[in-house]
Write a structure and sequence with these properties.
0% strand, transcription (chains A, B), 8 helices, DNA-binding, DNA-binding transcription factor activity (chains A, B), 196 residues, Tetracycline Repressor, domain 2, mainly alpha, transcription regulation (chains A, B), homodimer
Amino acid sequence: MKTGRTEKTPTRNRRAEILEAAAELFAARGFHGVSIEDIGAAVGVSGPALYRHFSGKEALLAEMLLDISERLREQGARLATTADPDTAEAALDALLSGHIAFALTHPALIRVHERELDNVPEQARRAIRRLQRLYVEEWVTVLSELHPACPPARLRAATHAVFGLLNSTPRSAGELAPEAMAGLLRDMARAALARL
Amino acid sequence: MKTGRTEKTPTRNRRAEILEAAAELFAARGFHGVSIEDIGAAVGVSGPALYRHFSGKEALLAEMLLDISERLREQGARLATTADPDTAEAALDALLSGHIAFALTHPALIRVHERELDNVPEQARRAIRRLQRLYVEEWVTVLSELHPACPPARLRAATHAVFGLLNSTPRSAGELAPEAMAGLLRDMARAALARL
DNA sequence: GGAGTCTGTTAATGATGACTAACATCCGAG
DNA sequence: CTCGGATGTTAGTCATCATTAACAGACTCC
């Protein structure tokens, strides 16, 4: 059928394709609610073919979450360090916009990242948690410049709360156009963080 | 062993006991990550004993989510109608405090309520969604009094976002003392909702 | 003191599902 | 060509698990 001979990168794309399809499925039905067969079917191969690309279902999830956490952390590190160390205000805005863009662009990833950490094998879980912690600390650092009197624990809790707010996207999808949603979330988050 | 003869309400408590234990387990490992055996073990009976109280695993989850949704809706309806129709401000505060109290008191329930709706059989799911919608509308009604110019879709999205913020509790547990957390969440949510 | 209901228990039963084995195909390099 | 690796396929295999069956103690009500 679609054995187009000119298939570019017939290999390298499979992994990405699988990860993408699996993310959608995990987001919709949860890790344990999705079978290897399901994931295979979603990319047009059937079942055990996945073992040519991943060592197992948990490894697949681990790689997915590691990738998400790494992207967020990298983005956080990049945006929080906007040269100008004076304007913590600008850094916070950059973090906000970056996180919102990610959440709106990849709602499935956000959902999986939020829900499935427990299903990742111990070792990878530690690595993921480390990255998450680094990302949070990026926010806490910026916030502590804006609110020097506020204790770190409170800043951390506030950061988690804002993540909850921003990550509500997958739940209220479709209500608003993406730009409107982005603006709303940014305004609400900014206001929430001003009260520290 | 503990066959204390004077066991009060030996029956009626089992259902509640099971629901409670199951909620903790579901919150920790997800619906599909918990077996009937696990739930039985958590309340000291083993396995199929649960079928004396629930018709099945999904029915158990359905009842759990129905109960949570009903409690929230009831609480919402009660608090939003604080006699004084003038002070929408007060009604909003009441809704906020009520939701925060619930989230802080029952983090496991909040988590399950947020994550497991997809695993509920169709019919019950509809009922649960209806209750959730009613609860959201309670908020939207109050908010629309405070922000008459704001379109309902935006108010709904904002409500979901605030729920995300308030429900971040299970994720940042332990960072702050409950009262401090409650105060923080209320301040942040109030500020976020002022920006509409 | 026995019939019936409630609540449990320990064995099936039957699916589902992750993972492995054994066996093709394709394709690039020598 | 042909060897080898990459990628798939289809049949197991082995666990796990929800659910049911068959049976038993306890308590109530007569």
